[in-house]
Amino acid sequence: MNLYEWLETILFFIVLLAMVKPFGAFMARVYQGDKTFLSPVLVPCENLLYRVCGVERDEEMDWKRYAVGLLLFNLLGGVALFSILLLQHLLPLNPQKLPAFSWHLALNTATSFMSNTNWQNYAGESTTSYFTQMFGLAVQNFLSSATGMVVAIALIRGFVRKKTSAIGNFWVDLTRSTLYILLPLSLVFAIFLVSQGVIQNFSPYKTVPLVQPVTGTTTVKEVTIPMGPVASQEAIKELGTNGGGFFNANSAHPFENPTPLTNMVEIFLILLIPGALTQTFGRMAGNPRQGWALLAVMLAILIFAMGVLYWAESAGNPLVAKLGVHGINMEGKDTRFSLAGSSLFAVATTGTSCGAVNTMHDSLTPLGGLMPLSLILLSEVIFGGVGTGLYTMLAFVVIAVFIAGLMIGRTPEFLGKKIEVREMWLSMITVLTSGILVLVFSGIAMMVPSAVASMANPGTHGLSEVLYAFASMSNNNGSAFAGLNGNTVFYNLTGALCMSIGRFAPIVASLAMAGSLAGKKYVPPSLGTLPTDKAPFALWLALVILIVGALTFFPALALGPIAEQLMMIR
Amino acid sequence: MSKHAPQPISIFDPRIMRPALVDSFKKLDPRALWRNPVMFAVEIASAITLVTFVMSLTGANKEPAWFTGLVSVWLWLTVIFANFSEALAEGRGKARAASLRKTRTNVTAKRLKKPEFGSSYETVPAPELRKDDYILVEANDLIAGDGDVIAGAALVNESAITGESAPVVRESGGDRSAVTGGTTVIANAIIVRITANPGETFLDRMISLIEGAKRRKTPNEVALEVLLIALTLVFLLVCANLSPLSIYSVKAAGQGTPVSLTILVALFVCLAPTTIAALLPAIGIAGMDRLFQKNVIALSGRAIEAAGDVNVLLLDKTGTITLGNREAVAFVPVGGHTEQEVAEVALMASLTDETPEGRSIVSLAKSKHGLQLALPADAENIPFSADTRLSGLNTDGKQYRKGAADSTVAFAKGLGAQSIPANLGEVVDKIARAGATPLVVSRDTEILGVVNLKDIIKGGIQERFQQLRSMGIRTVMITGDNPLTAAAIAAEAQVDDFLAQAKPEDKLRLIKENQEAGYMVAMTGDGTNDAPALAQADVAVAMNTGTQPAREAANIIDLDSNPTKLLDIVEVGKQILMTRGNLTTFSISNDVAKYFAIIPAMMLSIYPQLETLNIMRLATPLSAILSAVIFNAVIIPLLVPLALKGTKFRPMPAEKLLIHNLLIYGVGGMVAPFVGIKGIDLVVASFL
After folding, report:
1. How many Å lie between the alpha carbon of B569 and the closest alpha carbon of chain A?
2. What is the tally of structural domains in chain A?
3. Which of A407, A424, A522 is nearest residue B658 as measured by Cβ atoms?
4. Is residue A140 in a domain?
């Protein structure tokens, strides 16, 4: 890495680490209903909302009521979005007169935005109207993020509370997530992005003459530039680890991500809430060290993956080198962002379940591409999605604690809560659901001729594309190895299935675990209790995450990126 | 550890080996194997390879028959080894149960018409006895069932149950009234009220426990099984996923052959956590058996595991922390007398006293003061009585006495003593404050001094408490002593806390408070008044000498009636969990090496470049796969001794213990198969 890259990378992590603690503390105050600096303005709004919706703010729910509320709310959101997509041609703010979505694409897209995946089997500028973007997709971007966050908060309450069935009020948690956290931050950062050149308008697409006409079989003299309310959507895209780009090129598009500064800010937004939630957790659990331990595990794996990715890309492609083109592999990367800026974006967007891209993952070297793919396959816990990262990580913690507890001869316990049969079932469901979906559906895809035909590059790379697609959808990431043509009935439907199961099975399991844990009594720590906030346990946790991931996917990866890399270098 | 513990039978003893071998095959019955889902899956896998083997023979399968045949053989062996380890663990218990069962056969009982001596009786077979029947048991009769002695007292030989050959006294009333079916009355006759119906007696429960017939999986075991089943399911899908992926890859690469069913099945078995799944039942059974060798019967596996989690240990002072008897350690003169005089008088007052305290006074006087007094011919023994609360002897017209301060003073005054030494009160107080018992000695009207009778803390007990502390277990001493004495003993024994002047309800309250605070509480007890507290405690150890209610309230019974056994029980409880955890880690870590053996081998024909992953440089794809399968099978019998003996437990802080075990079983688990598979491959390749 050159000096500039070192500086931007180190500065980035310093800022991130400086921000997670105060912001995590802020979120803890919000969810506990304490006063914050936003309270004078927002408490009246909050109360008004409750009055209009008939929500009793002090009424607590057991896990079943919480889960039913969450599922119904998401179903409603999904149906609303589905309807908007099908009726797009009849709705306003459609200057390009874009037609309605096909039913299966609408189903896939509605599921995708409802589940915080933002898998896009379409190109935004040529398919979606401004109305769809603003009132359909962006609304889901806020609500699906808030949904993930409330599940994490409910699970934290499960660990913290004693002998109760109450894990909070879904409506109150949802309102606070949106009102206090997502909306203000999106507002601030949208304005910042506008200042950097991100557009925000309702104009029809502009046709402008090319500075330098291109001559091929015909001569092209002008180009159509898509317009739209981009900035308002851009901030929540990163902040809520949604990742659905306004344009097909996503954060590689200059209207979405114009400068190296916006690039770093967007990465910061991707990691901010997932990182800070570890601190919210530590604070609410009364053990800040525990939050730091989880963050350390995430950070270590993220930085490792970034290092490998950077190394693989800078080593370049020996097959291209034979043609006389040496140096780093620049295919699919934007020269505006340094290699470090691209690598960091790639691992941040896949370690979290964001899925926005400023680099085409399909064009990475096989080993480089293995990093984003692996980060997704680790069940999205390396920071992970907003909320989803924390609750999935906590499920891994439960499993790690269980084995470690046995190894020291005690009934395993975490934060004073005994880990028993029920918790094992639920954490296994949380952790393994996405992996099972990937294995089942990538296997099925390989047997369906039409699915195989969607590959842009048959062979090891095509296999990686399919694997990446199902990994991305099942783990609610949304990024793609873009070579695959996903807008087919097969991928739209299997994708919708993967995204909804991959999203809601772990959510219900986590809420059930919250309920089960909240009902338990607290076991005070003793010398015989395993400290879970120190380096040895953190290391063990990292190993469990890596081993579970490796054991599940090594064979498939061997036929994909690993074989491809070996074929490239030998 | 008791010297009377039953002789452990070696697992290599043919009496255990032979039935275990037979059982290993019997347990292949899918209906039995179903209880162990992972091994059940392996059995199905083995059956599939049997089919592919037959297909190889007929030519329907292109793989060489030697390969499919050997894979099939080793997969079947994997299941058989698993069954064998379980059968071996059960074997010892079965042998013991068989000998116990012998004592149960052909017992008859003398059923009384009325519960009194001299009443007429009828002779009935033991199985006809019911609760609340009264039976007469005379010398050399076998007691036909569990019950309470309601009249008489007898010497009972309980060796059938405890292995202890010295007979014990069982008498009506008090804490020694319980008798166990299968034991023999040696002298005297007693009337016993039967308290358990046939099939529910202690002996019956013991036999079924030892045989493992009623062995239920503990919650922890079930939770671990959840983990293992989930992993197995994932590995099943991994293998299922590989089939279409490899078929596609063959088409895309234009070379090679898709991964065959035999190899997929072999991969599945190698990846599935077979090592821990195979040894899991044996670990639990062997743990109970280890306790049994220490003469402790756990009435459920749950109780042993709970023992591993105990945070608070309630221990009776007497017999656990201190030797049951106090011992004289000093003679303290009062009122101008000399130490020698006190020793002489104390010796005289104790010459006929056969209690351990009395004997300790004699031995102290002899050893420290060189006194050699023979028992005078005219000595008249004055035994301790509840009225006078004094003991001693009369000789040569003199009355030698010893006793509590107030009773001795009262006695002297009764004889006409004019003055009592002024410093007596001070000396007595001082001794009491130090946690000892002051015994005042007198000759006629004269008060000469005080014997300091001290509670003797058991040797090495401080170290054991230190060990417990380092394991995070708090010890609380329970005693009927006054708080002053209790505090002094607690300090000397280094217990963490004490409960003085404890009444049964105080014990119950203490347990409830601790449980309320989230702690797991263990206690030992033997008296009927301990029963409520025993029933409340998470781990309740009853002494076999205890009463029936105490034994019923407990979940662990110590046949030696040695309260320090709790420490052994805690240790075994931890060992069981640790062995499970360690073997799980070992089993999963193994998969890393197995992948490096099998993955390149199975895909080499499609992408020859994957040879790079063959870091063990295994000879051929088939030998690599076969070696992994063989390693996976033979590791089971190799680890059987570890599963039966349990991981060694060293008391140390949790974090250190974790690192220690991770290094051995985690890192070791990754390295061992690399070495093992390579070694096996060298052998296999030499035959190719």
Report:
1. 13
2. 1
3. A407
4. yes
